[in-house]
Amino acid sequence: MEATEKVTNLVQIIICMQDQLITKVPKRSPLILRMVVLIFAIFCGLYIFSICMKQTDKFKETNPPKIQVINRRNRPCGDTRIQESDIPYVHFPKPDMFNRQECACNPVRYFVIVSMQRSGSGWFETLLNSHMNLSSNGEIFRAQDRRKNVSTIVKTMDKVYNLDWFSSASKNECSAAVGFKWMLNQGLMKNHEEIAKYFMRRGVSIIFLFRRNILRRMISLLANIYDMDAKLLNGTHKSHVHSPHEAQILATYKPTLNVTTLLSDLKIADDEVAKALEYFKNTRHIVLYYEDILTNRTKLVDVQEFLKLPRQNLTSLQVKIHRGPLYQHIGNWDDVKKTLRGTLYETFINTDYKL
């Protein structure tokens, strides 16, 4: 009996121990699981963000941005007199050939005189160059090697506008306006798209100078071509003269106009002017006419204001060659008058300015 009790007690002890060992795991709360997932997601997010920030800082150190935002209200040399609208047209060149010294902080404006041969552009340019702060460097694209293609044209203009182009008109370090003269048939019209973009990009202003009476321009052109061979002034050809005596000698030649092609020739000249104005209409510009400057010198004031220059009295030593009425300068005047009668160009012979 005693052994039986011992066995029974032993079995009971084993059962109790089994009950204690084999216990049912309680179910976890869904709320706790969600909190754990949320905390894990936040931790991962913060970790990824810190890695990205380190990579960004490293990129900034090794690859600084190439595009910089410039505060356009800042003025070079502390100059605050420049208006916001003038900023694209104001420049501070740094020439390669010399130092602007005390004038380094003086703003420079870029311009070009666009014209046609024998339209008074030579006389007009001498007027501008009499201004102490303006440099107009002449007909630089008369040389064909400078207008072989767009690249050579741009290279030449860059040199002029950087003040590295030297001529008798150069004011060098103290120039407040710099430019040159450009005829329509010197590569300007042929490459007008690229040149217009250049003008817009560099802030170049155009001064258009044409003649209203293109018949007079034709007379001057033919007379100048004739004198290239005849050399009426003591065996010397001069496109421009500085004395009434020289002008009188050159005016003795009276060209004979081709009346067969006269109307078409006049129309071609008209069309070229219209196309030039159309091609460069979006460029800052002013339109002048030779006759208006002759009869109204306040036009020169308009030019100085256009270039934002201090007003000065502009002078020229050049003397006009073909003075007086048209009939005095045309060899076949009656034929020309008959051809133009009743056409758009009749005004050229009926009305004329007094000189």
Automatic annotation (TrEMBL):
Keyword RNA-binding assigned: no
For this protein, the record's Pfam families field holds: Sulfotransfer_1
SUPFAM superfamilies listed in its UniProt record: P-loop containing nucleoside triphosphate hydrolases (SSF52540)
Q: What class of enzyme is it?
A: transferase
Domain called Sulfotransferase: residue spans: 111-312
Which InterPro entries does UniProt cross-reference here? Nod_factor_sulfotransferase, P-loop_NTPase, Sulfotransferase_dom
Q: Name one GO molecular function term.
A: sulfotransferase activity
Q: Which UniProt keywords apply?
A: Membrane, Transferase, Transmembrane, Transmembrane helix
Domain of life of the organism in this record?
Eukaryota
Q: What is its EC number?
A: 2.8.2.-
TM regions (residue ranges): 31-49
So what family is this one in? Answer: Belongs to the sulfotransferase 1 family.
What this protein is called in its record is: Sulfotransferase
UniProt organism field = Buddleja alternifolia
The upper taxonomy is: Eukaryota, Viridiplantae, Streptophyta, Embryophyta, Tracheophyta
